[in-house]
Input
Amino acid sequence: RKKLHNTILELKGNIRVFCRVRPLLPDERSSPEGNFISYPSSVESLGRGINLVQNGQRHSFTFDKVFAPEATQEDVFVEISQLVQSALDGYKVCIFAYGQTGSGKTYTMMGKTGILEEKGLIPRSLEQIFQTRQSLQPQGWKYDMQVSMLEIYNETIHDLLSSNRSAPDVLRAENGSPLKPYSIKHDANGNTQVSDLTVVDVRSAKEVSFLLQEASRSRSVGKTQMNEQSSRSHFVFTLKISGVNESTDQQVQGVLNLIDLAGSERLSKSGSTGDRLKETQAINRSLSSLSDVIFALAKKEEHVPFRNSKLTYLLQPCLGGDSKTLMFVNISPDSSSANESLCSLRFAARVNACEIGTPRRLT
Ligand code: ADP
Output
């Protein structure tokens, strides 16, 4: 356990970026029009470089890791399992999936339901955490775990575990008058509290898997021209971990946030009008707030604009200081997505260049 701790410390203080290219889907084409992507040739040669050629021009990027389309869910999980484990050691961990709609974010995070080998990072992380919890019992460790799941849609929070699922933005009182929307606060210990959010005590990965099914049923899902099941909201899964060692009185408080971000595509491609246009604008605003925060942290600026979006304000305690952040940039290999892929890769490259140093003032 001590050894594990040391390895984790080496990872501290940096935003890691992993790039994952999904396989071509049956109706997609790889490389007409002179656009193509080249990446590591096999899973074994898990590389760091990815090239995208668009209109004859070559763009090269380097990330902490690049997963080729053949990489399985297990291959990906192996690379993040230590990071997940560090939440049990008392770290605040955030893992994001960023990319255009249809690039494989939900596949990476949740996987395919019902197919064991295709389980995503969220169920795999939970299984590992509960297994580790059990294996640490003989050393005197006792852990309490609490789960909450929410989505942020058009800058409003929706509790995915609330029984009042039909009210997405603001809970309505029985007489029809609006109640206060969920508000976000940070307590003196730097923990996030969301008023009235359902928080469930969990004792096994199976219990969490049941809650995940509940939550995915109540997610707001919209239809765009790009993907019928596209998700237009940010999904935030939070596991709070409190551990105490009964022999040594040591205490740890860790948090694991797993975030499936809304699609990063720009307006023109999603054919948005009306409500959909409003959604897309809200998504673009909150994704740019996330990057503003990451870049401000990287530049060690005095003022970090956490409050500019619900997402960044919610995650504030987990983004600065000695927290650990990993971003997956998900890429579609389809040549018609080359433009969006280039935007995602550029965004991710800027994020990858960031280093987060000492804890900063919470604004
Ligand atoms: P997003 O969440 O970014 O909108 P999805 O995760 O829904 O995208 O992926 C789009 C489609 O591609 C889905 O049908 C999904 O099952 C498939 N897919 C994505 N990544 C992979 C992968 N690595 N292997 C196999 N199929 C994938």
Q: What stands out?
A: The pocket of adenosine-5'-diphosphate is lined by residues 22-23, 25, 99, 101-107, 112, 227, 230, 263, 330 (CB under 6 Å). Confidence is low (pLDDT under 50) at residues 1-13, 165-175, 221-230, 357-363.
